[in-house]
Amino acid sequence: MRIDRFHVEHLRCLGRVELELAGRSAWLTGPNGAGKTSLLEALCLLGYGRSFRARPGQGLIQRGKTALEVVAHWRDGTGQGHVSGLRHGGEHWTARRDGEALSTLGGLAEGFPVLCFHPASSALAQGPAEERRRALDWLVFHLEPGFSSLARRYARALRQRNALLRSGAPDAEFEPWEQELGRCAHAMTRQRAAAAGYLEQALAAVWPRLCEDSPPPLGLRPGWRAEDSALEDLLLLNRSRDRELGYTTIGPHRADLQFGEAFGVPPEHWSRGQAKLVALALCLAQAEALRQARGLTSLLLFDDLGAELDAGHLGRLLHWLARAPYQCLVTGTGLPAACPAEAAHWPVFHVEQGKVRPLSAQLAAPVTAPDAAPPPGGQGV
Ligand SMILES: Nc1ncnc2c1ncn2[C@@H]1O[C@H](COP(=O)(O)OP(=O)(O)O)[C@@H](O)[C@H]1O
Ligand SMILES: [Mg+2]
User: Fold this and answer.
1) CATH number of the domain at 1-113+296-381, out of 2.60.120.10, 3.30.450.20, 3.40.50.300, 3.40.50.1820?
2) 298 in helix, strand or coil?
3) In terms of CB atoms within 10 Å, which of 7, 15, 118, 227 comes out highest?
C-alpha cells in the first residue's frame, strides 16, 4: 500500500498538517521537538490503533484540544484508492474506512500494514517478551483473518480465570474457562508457529543486506510446554500455585520469539548497537514475510534513523530501501551524509514548530504503478 496524502489535526505540537506524498518515500527533516516523530505516530495510530510512544490518554492530544484526528488517502496493491480516518478524544475513538464506521480498531489496520523502527526498537531484540510477541502477532494478524477474534476470546477467558484465582472460587468454576483457554491456545499457537517460520526465513533473507555475519536463528516459545501437554491439563496442574500468585503463569500470553546466537555471542551479550541491528532486521523481516506470504506491501517508518545506525549500516539499508517496493518515511535532523543517490531523490519535507513544508522541488508525477506483483501463489490485496 502507498499513502498519497495524509492529514493530522491536534496531535502533540501538530495543529493542522497536510502532507502530499503521492505514493512516494520521503524524508522528514527538522530540528529537535519540531514534530517529526509526531507525524510518524499519526500513521502508527492508523496502523495499530496506538502509538509506539504513548496512548492518546498520555499526552498525544494537543494541549488545550479535546480530540486528535488522522486521515490518510492511500492505495492498496491493486491501485484501488481508500480513505482511513481515526478520531480520538482520549477516552473514545471513532474510526472510518471508505466512509463506513468501523466497530474495532483492528478494522482500520486490516490491509494497512505499518511498521515503525524507532529509538526504543532495540527492545525487540533484548527487551521483554511482550515486544517480540507484539511483532509476531502483527504478522499473524495480517496473515490470519481469524486471529484477532481468537486472541480476544483467549484474553477474555484469561481475565475470567485470573478473577477466579483471586476470589478463591471453587474448582468447578475453573473448568469451562480452562477448556476455552486450551482451545484458543491450540489454534493461536498453530498460527503463531506458521508466522514464526515465515519470519525466520525472511530474517535470513534480509540479514545479508545489513550485516556480514550469519543471522540469528529464531524460534517460537509458545508460553507453556506445548510439546508435552495440552494447556488445559497444565492449567489444572498449576491451579493451586496460580491461586497463590493470583494470576495465570502459563499460556500464549507468555509466548516469546527466541533469538539464537549472532555476532558469535548469545543475545544477552549483544551490544546495544548489535541489538539495534537485530531489531531493524526483525522489522524488515516482518515486512518481507508479509509480502512473501500475502503480497501485501507495508508502509515503513524510520524515526531518527541517522542517529540509530552507523554510516556503513545506514548506507546499506538505504541502498536496499531505495530499490525495495516499500514506501518509506524517514525522519532526521537532516539528510544523512551516506545517502545513496536513489534515496537522495526522495522528496524532503521540512518540519518546524509543528508545521510542514516541502523543501524539494515539486513532486514528480504520482507513483501509479501497483506495488511489486505478489509472488506466485500469493494473494493481492
Ligand atoms: N500534548 C501536547 N501538546 C502540545 N505539544 C506537545 C504535546 N506533547 C508534546 N508536545 C510537543 O510536541 C513536540 C514533539 O515533537 P516530536 O514529534 O517529538 O519532535 P521531533 O521528533 O521533531 O523531535 C515537542 O516540542 C513537545 O514539547
Ligand atoms: Mg523525534
Assistant:
1) 3.40.50.300
2) coil
3) 118
